[in-house]
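Exercise: predict the structure of this protein bound to iron/sulfur cluster.
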Amino acid sequence: MSVPLLLHACCGPCSLEPLRLLREEGFEPTICWTNPNIQPVAEHDLRLHTLQEWAKDVAHVEVIVAADDRDAWEHGVAPAGFDRQRRCRACYALRLSESCRVARERGFTHISTTLAVSPYQLFDTCTDLLVELAGANGLTAVVRDFRPYYSAATIESRELGMYRQNYCGCRFSSAEATIERHEARDARKAAKEQRKKQAGR
Ligand code: SF4
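Solution:
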């Protein structure tokens, strides 16, 4: 018999592989959306819509839309600014706490998160929090390292024509991602110049 599990989902593309793998293991996941970190609001709504469409048309899984407490995020997470470790820890804690609250309220015994699929997340911080918060709520944390399946999820989500974001969610991550893209572009340009110079010798 399959075991009901509440799966916190950060977005549609990151849900593909965790849902498949958890089902294969014998869990029966219900998705929980609580992501007040996503800015701006239009981006938040687009990611939620993408998740809901896929859940309804492709995955056939229920999506519970829980609280998206933007004030709590601004007060509890934003002050950490560009201190990524501190900021992401507070951000995971906010979202996983709300997921645990929903799980308890709805009678789930097991909980997991799709955050564990992305190599861009702080895996250890996130999973430690999941275990801690699940325990405090009388739940069993289903900790899995889904990261080896990230590229499969990328390919599949492209094939499905899903919207794919290029930053984690908050305004800080948007700025960090922009800087990283510029740095990568500059490095490529410098390498090209170097190759040209060497060829001209
Ligand atoms: S980078 Fe992602 S996990 Fe970290 S604070 Fe921003 S939205 Fe939250």
